């Protein structure tokens, strides 16, 4: 059982020392989402 994001728009905000935006975007895409923005920042 997985997360169904078919047809949803996703903004993937990643953190440099945590999970990066590219990894979040890849997971969202594999669940059927359309990634509209993918960034990785350092939140200090």
TrEMBL record:
One of its GO terms (cellular component) is glycine reductase complex. One of its GO terms (molecular function) is sarcosine reductase activity. It holds the Pfam family GRDA. Belongs to the GrdA family. Monomer. Component of the glycine, sarcosine and betaine reductase complexes, together with components B and C. The keyword Oxidoreductase applies. It comes from the Bacteria. Coiled coil: none annotated. This is Glycine/sarcosine/betaine reductase complex protein A. InterPro entries: GRDA.
């Amino acid at each position: 059982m997985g997360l169904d994001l078919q047809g949803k728009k996703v903004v993937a905000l990643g953190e440099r020392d945590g999970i990066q935006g590219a990894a979040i975007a890849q997971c969202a895409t594999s669940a059927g989402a359309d990634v509209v923005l993918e960034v990785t920042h350092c939140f200090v």
